[in-house]
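Box S1 | Example of a co-folding query
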Amino acid sequence: MAAGCYSCRTISKKADDPVGTCLGCGVFACELDGERDLSNQDFICGMCDSTRLSISSKLAQPPEEPPGRPEDGPGGGVVSAGVPTSPTSGGGAGAAIATYGSPEDFEGRRPMIASSSKAHRELYRQEIDRIVNQLEGLRAFGVAQRVSSDSRAAGLAEFDPRGVRRAAQELGAQIHADNTRGVLSPVLLADALGVAAWAINAKVGGQPAIGKIRHLPDPDLRLIVGLYTPLTAVA
Ligand SMILES: [Zn+2]
Ligand SMILES: [Zn+2]
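Box S1 (continued) | Returned holo structure for zinc ion
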């Protein structure tokens, strides 16, 4: 049986014929679901590009280890946001994750993914201040507690409600701290969310399907896309 595009086979049913293997997660991707980075030739799928944008926005920490270690297994380790990497060491083993300096940098290096995800990204950009505000609110125990019993969050992760509550609270505290210090880039975060929603084939302005959200590699993006996607589409 011939290999096909991961997204077309499992998520979106578009073109199927793969043109490359994602450097981030190892899946085959077609020309509609993955693209080379024009600055460094990394071939990256849309799913992993959402993670790169999230790291670029300073929401996510880069992984501790370079991706593609065979002993980790495919999709094995969810990156824990707990332990920060040393900010002063300028990258170790050479396989540092490429990040985007600005939304324009992303759009220039990923023209196909940027243009395919444009409508999603624009919707998140319009709503990003409200979303960041709501995310900051998650640092309060009661708010995080409510979220952990929301079925949209409960379906996202393997962990129990207490785990969801803890993760939500940590995410809220981190976003609050980063936003207060002016570290967080809301526009790049909006782009990360838009690319994530596009990559799982969500309808613009519609509630993404939980079964598809679970394909996103970054746990924070799973939580945010599941709970805070702006809903504008008429049901
Ligand atoms: Zn495809
Ligand atoms: Zn990938």
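The first strand starts at residue 18 and ends at 21. Residues 5, 7-8, 14-15, 29-30, 32-33 surround zinc ion (ligand 1) (CB under 6 Å).
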